[in-house]
Fold these 2 entries.
Entry 1:
Amino acid sequence: MSDELQRFKEKVLREYPRLSKDDTFKFACKPGISCYNECCGDVNIFLTPYDILRMKNALGIQSEEFLDKYTITPFDKNQNYPVILLKMQDDDKHTCHFVSPDGCAVYDDRPWACRYYPIGMASPKENDEEVESAFFFLLNEDHCKGHGEGNEMSVAEWRIDQGLDKYDEFGELYKELTLHDYFARGKQLDVPRMEMFHMACYNLDKFREFILNSSFLTRLELEADLLEKLKEDDEELLRFGFRWLKFALFAEKTMTIRPSALGGLK
Ligand code: SF4
Ligand code: SF4
């Protein structure tokens, strides 16, 4: 974890009220509010694999182009796995590439963090003494005038309202990798495994090219219709990528190697 993230985590644990799914809050963000668009700049937004899938498809571009144009990949020697941040523009306010006078230009496919705001979520890691179980918290920042506006809503209702179901489903699968006890045991991925993680999670179109244009899939026992789905369906491909990473990085039995290929699959 970077120093900045560690400081943020400590601040959340110290200062922010914890919320359960049933706790309520009052918040609304809509055109006309005095701070409209103010939060869409100079901000660290971590992108999940599903965020990237949704945004690159909304823009009609390949994952590689999306990563090149709109993201940065910060690296810290203590990092367990590669992370992706949304790149801000190089203007005075460091505005997001997608903010427009009418709001977010990719609103239907905006990232997880933008959907959840002003709710944040903390998850425990293996042996985490500070966080025993997952909880939500309310970010109440001075510049944001949406607090106290609109109807009272529970966190659960907010999640439905913001279309978070699919994001949460894929978020849970992603956490099975990022919070894996492999890392809690102090192990680190080497460079080739970091690259595998990056490709299968974030560079989906390259991952598809890799598995379809190599002998990779011929070495695995696959479900009957999976190959056809992997050719077309990004969500299926991402699920398969998560499965492969558990197999390749953490030696989980999520895949079966054909007997004829034993000894050749890495
Ligand atoms: S993606 Fe959309 S909602 Fe998120 S910071 Fe950018 S403009 Fe704002
Ligand atoms: S600062 Fe708050 S109310 Fe203002 S645009 Fe951002 S989320 Fe909405």
Entry 2:
Amino acid sequence: MKCQICGCTDDKACPGGCTWILPNLCSNCENKVPLAIYVGPTYIRGVDKFRFECPSCKHRFNRVEKNLGITKCPGCKNYIKCLKKKG
Ligand SMILES: [Zn+2]
Ligand SMILES: [Zn+2]
Ligand SMILES: [Zn+2]
């Protein structure tokens, strides 16, 4: 695994140590990325997708369930965190 923000890995953690919050986001960087707003699921050919809205530019985009994590917004190119709404 590798953090998309700082580039740390299992072999080379951040100074002082860090843990994985998401498969591509470490605990040191958790506060550096805004959380995308979950706006609802979409169903395309049986694949569950989740629709998110970027908190900065309001761009809406889809994420496939297994790829939830941090991603670059297609609109503003900033990193944002995509989490499925709990419950
Ligand atoms: Zn990091
Ligand atoms: Zn780290
Ligand atoms: Zn954006």
